[in-house]
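pipeline/complex-builder :: batch 7 item 3
reading input block
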Amino acid sequence: MAVWTWGARVLIRVLLLVALLAAAGLRPAFSHEGHSHGEEPAPPAVAAPRAEAHSELFEIVAVLGPDRRLWLYLDRHATSEPIDGATVQVTLDGEDLGAATRAGEATYLLANPALERPGQRNLVFIITAGEDVDLLPATLEIPAAAVAPTAAPGSAELLSMALREPVLWAAGLVLLLLGIAIGRAATPRALPPLVVAEPPATATRAQGLPAGAPSPGRVAAAPAAVALLAVLLVPMIAGAQPMDAPRRQPDGSIFVPKPSQRLLGLRTGTAEPGEAAVAIPLTGRVVADPNASGRVQASEAGRIEPPEGGFPMLGQRVARGEVLGFVVPIMAAQDRVGVRASIAELDALIVIGEARVRRLTALAGTVAAREISDARADLEGLRQRRAANLPAVTGREPILAPSAGLISVVRVAAGQVIQAQEPLFDIVDPTRLWVEAIAFDPAAVAEVSGASAVTAGGEALRLGFVGRGMTLRQQGLPLHFRIESGAAGLAVGQPVTVLVETPRRTVGIVLPAQAVIRNPEGGQVVYEMPSAERFLPRPVRAQPLDGQHVLVTAGLERGARVVTSGAGLIAQVR
Amino acid sequence: MIPRRLLLASLIFLPVGAQAHEPRRGPNGGQKVDIGTNHAELLAAGNTLRLFLFDGADRPIPAAGATAQVLILAGGRQATVALAPVGDNVLAGTGAFLAARGMRAVVTLTLPGQRPVQARFTPMDQN
């Protein structure tokens, strides 16, 4: 057994080696005398007959529908943007077939008996779109008349097929129903209740599901049923337009017909080499600007009481100095008695003092003015001492907002007894947020020429550099950035990826960030569009630039047409 | 594991020459492009067109028996010109057009005993 697997492995290695060595020798076989004649791989054999042509202005795809009508899809070549309202005149083998009529957005339709003649036909499209005029030649292979319809059969055809072969269809239906019955019978069921007292109605259902909810098995089947329905309905919705399915071809390229490209909203761009600043990605999170946020803490232990209109709610805007609540100090019984005693004592002293002032003022003239003013000062001092002592037993301390902003955290309830320094509210100004990033390589961020950030949802934020710390925190150097513009609805603590631009520059191809996607193996891939309906995955080395753009430094040639929007959807074609 | 490796190895066999129809300057100063399996060079001057024929290895091929139809778009007007052999490997013809920058032409060439083949030229946009 071991010998067998060893032998197989050696065989594979030898084959790989042969393949590698032969590759260099095989390549010229595709070309002749210096250049290749561009053996464009054909579209899948099951697709409708089609022809395509392009110039630097336009790209046109002609698809012969099952009803022998020619569907034309016109786009800009560089961007793959559909061109609506153009005039497309068609000649076939030199014979003028007239102009195609508009059948939909940037879709044109031509019906002519000449399109029923089988064989290889030379087409010339004369395209007028605004100021731009162009001639495009193409070759269309028209199949013989008895060709099977290549598009999905319509409902009428299905019906006629059913009528032609009733026995076969009935047998198929019976098998389908049998399969469904077996499937239902084989589904796992909940075990019968072991405890007799447990009511059977709840035992057969999963815990926590209401009585009316569908069982989990049905819930799981629902998306599958919807998908099946969608697959069956798509050809009917599309009408007579030939809908070929996008598919992955044996050579690794992906065939996406024009109608599907339109549905995906696919756009392309030309790869032009450029220069961009090197960006370093850092992990960061949103923090509040310390000058535009506040934390409300109680200065002493007490019981919380709401202000006039109740406690401020989450998200409520408060002004600086606004009363957010009151703290009623709580005191031990002994302390309270002491305070009360001193108040009573002060009251007595005040009465004596008042009498003394009255007496002395009545004798004004015989008593020294100094004595009268001393007595008055004493009395005033006693009254102030009483006023200072009184709040300790009866008063309450207002809690004021230290800054203007929105209430972002509420940690109070009426009547709650709090300790001193306990945080009660957090106030954040949503227009003044910062981002704190941690750089684990302090040397790399020694020079910061600009910065941007991307949220987990892909929204880009523009940042301004505030400063960097001089002390490592958890082995990392904290950097602060001000959010200058960007997404609304950011929350404090939200993680973001910060891209720090440095003055160093590298050369590469700048592409939108959506153009680069991850393939199942984890590598970065860009989809190149060598022809109108064919896409090739190109493994690339890319580094982020500013959240919306990436720099491709290897794997892409200049001038290549690259998918800039919808690449993720192409990657999902199987 | 093993099929993936084989797949990777097979990727090497992919053809690379996608830019095959790149127009280039021909030996007579015109624009040379691929037409069918052959090459053709188109020269436009005034209202005259000349088409030189070469095979895939750029050796001249005899023009005797060959015919060509040219659809021209120049100065916003369409014209059709028929070309006839005038020399060893040259076809020529005149028509109601004036060669100007931005001129586009589609040549439909029929070599004796072969299917008609087409090619697109922009003879006045050479750099």
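note: The longest strand of chain A covers residues 495-512.
queue -> next item
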